[in-house]
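Consider the tokenized backbone below.
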């Protein structure tokens, strides 16, 4: 150890994700919105679940979501369908979009996601 190092507290190591979260405050904002951190689980609202689903999927994919088309409570959290632009084309109606199903725990943390559909932006679903 160099002189004077023993007086300074050791910094916690941060992974790239933790560094990014610290920079934008997203994890801290989620924790603050969830409660005091006493260990008790707090179910987030549907509005917050929509926001968290879009935000965390963007972190993983590196693409900004266009919309959240569905949000549903589940027994252990939330499920949301998020629409993402995967391939931009000209004209825009031929751009490739994707629907991702995102699963969140009660506190709004992403636990799983999967792409459930790919389609062109101008495509309309058939009536059932």
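A designed sequence for it:
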């Amino acid at each position: 150890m160099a002189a004077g190092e023993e007086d300074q507290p050791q910094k916690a190591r941060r992974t790239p994700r933790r560094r990014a979260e610290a920079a934008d405050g997203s994890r801290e904002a989620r924790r603050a919105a969830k409660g005091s951190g006493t260990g008790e689980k707090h179910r987030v609202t549907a509005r917050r679940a929509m926001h968290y689903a879009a935000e965390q999927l963007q972190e993983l994919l590196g693409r900004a979501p266009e919309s959240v088309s569905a949000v549903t409570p589940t027994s252990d959290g939330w499920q949301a369908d998020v629409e993402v632009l995967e391939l931009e084309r000209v004209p825009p109606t031929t751009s490739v979009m994707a629907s991702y199903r995102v699963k969140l725990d009660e506190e709004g943390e992403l636990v799983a996601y999967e792409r459930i559909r790919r389609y062109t932006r101008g495509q309309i679903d058939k009536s059932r």
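The two ends are 71 Å apart (CA to CA).
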